[in-house]
Amino acid sequence: MDGRWLVAGLGNPTRRYAGTRHNAGFLVADRLAERHGARWRGLTTRTASFVLDGRTVLLAEPQWSINLSGRPVAGLLRRYGIPVERLLVVQDDLDFPFGTARLKRGGGPGGHNGARSVHAALGTADYARLRVGVGRPAKGVKVSDFVVERFSDGERERMPELLERCADAVEAFVLRGLGRAQSVLHAADAR
Fold first, then answer.
1. In whole angstroms, what is the distance from residue 22 CA to residue 143 CA?
2. Of 22, 36, 112, 186, which residue is the catalytic one?
3. According to UniProt, where does the site described as Discriminates between blocked and unblocked aminoacyl-tRNA lie (predicted)?
């Protein structure tokens, strides 16, 4: 199926949040841009694009607070005439340990305010989400503090492999569909 696809990485803009757990979505989008030599442009929403086997993939990183990601994502779908079935949102997820990622279509936003904003702006949950595991905070650490902390040294060492697997899954989603992309992630988990 030819056409345009939107891969929206969620995160918080500015240097203050660079390399933090809440910016896992940005990190995956950055890895895809780097892999394909795509150049970022734009201020309120950074975008880059590349062609993958005849399919144009538009990468987006809304430069608003992560909790307000919905409006720019919905705006890009409208602007480029991309159906919600060709949207993949990439976000961090506390419910999965670091080093794991899950891909599914539909479902609720859980406690993720960025996903909640996207759901509200689209008026549907019928789109795909790649949830990148960042683990849970230690006892006594507030979730709001944990997600804006930088990854630990050990996590940073493992990050390149995780980002490669996530980028592979995004490409499989665009080229072969949800089931194949899920297989890419699950096969890596089994190793």
1. 11
2. 22
3. 12
pLDDT band at 1 (very low <50, low <70, confident <90, very high): very low
C-alpha span between 162 and 169 (Å, rounded):
11
Q: Does the pTM exceed 0.85?
A: yes
Annotated catalytic residue 112: no
pLDDT digit string, tens, across residues 5-40: 999 999 999 899 999 999 999 999 999 999 999 999
Annotated binding site: 17, 67, 113
**Whats the size of the chain, residue-wise?**
191
Which residue has tokens 């670091």?
98
Beta strands 101-105; 87-93: pairing state: unpaired
Question: How distant is the alpha carbon of residue 107 from its chain centre?
Answer: 16
- Rounded Cα gap, residues 122 and 70, in angstroms: 7
Three-state SS at 1: coil
Q: What share of the chain is helix, strand, coil (3-state, %, to 5)?
A: 45, 25, 30
- 85-144 confidence digits (pLDDT tens): 999 999 999 999 999 999 999 988 888 889 999 999 999 999 999 999 999 999 999 999
Domains (ranges, CATH) in the chain? 3-190 (3.40.50.1470)
Q: Cα 34 to the chain's mean position, in Å?
A: 15
Burial code of 23-39, b = ≥16 C-beta within 10 A, e = fewer?
bbbbbbbbbbbeebebe
Q: Give the pLDDT of residue 7.
A: 98
